[in-house]
Write a structure and sequence with these properties.
Length: 219
């Protein structure tokens, strides 16, 4: 008999965070400032339990060279950078000076400024400047959903065999199973999820953490 995944209520989420991924003072302050300064956009921030998961996954993978598409106020970049191996580097791509100015402040507080590089501008263009050979250990994509396929096609060839690609918001708050999705982002994600599943260059799983996180491993 197939087991139905447990619904994560607000109370149960609090328990999950408290018993496995409790934010430290830097992350708590970042989460609080994002909610206070950007109340209409705070939904763009990854969850606390996802941050803990991504730090551990980055550390387990032994990643040294990482790329992030969509930085917002910096929670995901801190999570990744903290998990990087000694001498590691995270290159972040974002279009907003406003959002990333908050990120910069918390990178400094977390002592991570020396291992994070920020590139402002459309990632679809900026990615073209990266070396074309497979050299990236870990990728995190959390940006405009209609751009995921473009980012994927640019980055998969640049990821080393055994490297990971993490893709956020793949469940679209449950709307991914709507028979007639009402927004371009969800329509694009339906197509993108199918593309990843059928891509012979990777093996992947879709994990129902937060708004859904696909983990793909380059073959």
């Amino acid at each position: 008999m197939t087991k139905i995944p447990l619904a994560l209520t607000a109370e149960l989420q609090e328990y999950v965070v408290a018993n496995g991924s409790t934010p430290d003072a830097v992350l708590r302050d970042l989460i609080d400032e994002t909610a206070r300064v950007l109340p209409g956009d705070q939904g763009m921030q990854i969850s606390a339990e996802q941050a803990g998961f991504m730090t551990l996954l980055t550390r387990i993978s032994g990643a040294r060279q990482a790329v992030e598409i969509g930085t917002f106020t910096g929670l995901s970049s801190i999570a990744i950078a903290r998990g990087l191996a000694e001498g590691g580097k995270l290159t972040c791509f974002d279009v907003s000076d406003e959002f990333t100015s908050i990120a910069r402040k918390y990178w400094d507080r977390a002592g991570l400024t020396d291992r994070i590089e920020l590139i402002i501008g459309p990632a679809a263009e900026s990615l073209k400047a990266l070396p074309e050979e497979p050299h990236i250990d870990l990728v995190f994509i959390d940006a405009d959903k209609t751009g995921y396929l473009n980012y994927w096609e640019q980055l998969v060839p640049r990821v080393r065999p055994g490297g990971l690609l993490l893709l956020d918001n793949v469940l679209r708050h449950g709307h991914i199973i709507d028979p007639h999705p009402g927004d371009e982002g969800t329509i694009a994600m339906v197509e993108f999820n199918r593309h990843v599943l059928d891509d012979p260059r990777v093996e992947s799983v879709l994990v129902p953490i937060a708004d859904g996180l696909t983990i793909a491993r380059k073959l």
